[in-house]
Amino acid sequence: MKSLKIGKQTIRFLSAPSLVAAASVVGPKEGRGPLSQHYDIILDDPINHTESYEMAEHTMLLQACKHCLTKANMQEEQIDLILGGDLLNQILSTTLTARELQRPFIGLYGACSTMAESLLMGSICVDGGYAENALCAVSSHYCTAERQFRYPLEYGNQRTPAAQWTVTGAGAFLISHTQHSPVCIPCGTIGKVMDYQIKDANNMGAAMAPAAADTLAAHFQDTGRTPKDYDHIFSGDLGKVGSDLLKNLMKQKGYALIEDNYTDCGLMVFDPKDDVHAGASGCGCSAVVLSAYILDKIRIGAWKRVLFMATGALMSTTSSQQGESIPGIAHAIVLEHREDGMK
Description:
- By secondary structure, the protein is α/β, with parallel strands linked by helices.
- It contains 9 helices and 15 strands.
- It has a single domain, classed as Peroxisomal Thiolase, Chain A, domain 1 (3-Layer(aba) Sandwich).
- Helices cover 32% and strands 22% of the residues.
- The strands form 3 sheets. A 7-stranded mixed β-sheet has the order 1-2-10-15-14-11-12, sandwiched between helices. A 6-stranded mixed β-sheet has the order 4-3-9-7-5-6, with helices on both faces. A two-stranded parallel sheet has the order 8-13.
């Protein structure tokens, strides 16, 4: 059988599946940010008119999924597979959303890297002929993440300068073999778990940056490309601390990131006037930036080739309490503009 691998960690997709539609839902704070005009839905209430923040996150993700299908002019019954996850224990928000949609479901957990992870797995399924239409969806919520991983907001704990603000947001994306669009996914790079023994749960950028550098370097080595071969490179949610570390690590590896074509999604979501310290984080961070901003640039041809990499801090409440370090992971996909919108 002909290998579909490129090098050690990169997978190529023979059919280059189409990314047909995407939808974003964000909270009020995110809705005041620089990308406000690009989001599909901006909530007027962070609890989304439910009885808890956890239910708010679930309903937010469900809204994103349904809006994505509406934009694709597709019925729920036409979805062969749902892939996705969130930050809650047992990926609760995504599980409840899949319960509502009643389609075959594979739950994923890659922390904040889950957006790229789900797009990778969705592309593998569509390209391999195991699904014609795959819905990839993720979410996060500031209040649910703080309650689970740090302290309930009612405690009023002081946040450290390296801390990031979890995005209240959800993104849903439709990958299809039967429908075509100007945006396609020709390949992706699966990351490895990296651990530089960072133990501070308030400094996730430092925990994730080594994994981001490892995945980026692997992608360049596998493909023979350099940063100059991309119109833009996006990392997921490294924030100010993590993105600075990534630049230094990549320079050490011989792949200096070009200032005018590298951006971290964690630095794009919030208004600079909002006090979010080191920037944004969460599954929803890279998801809403990809949906609301990046895809439009590729769709209209302003960017021909983009590398999108989401990063995740693979910590748990139990491991943190036991003094364990925080492993990191990063996955990357290539998004390209297809002139005729066809395969």
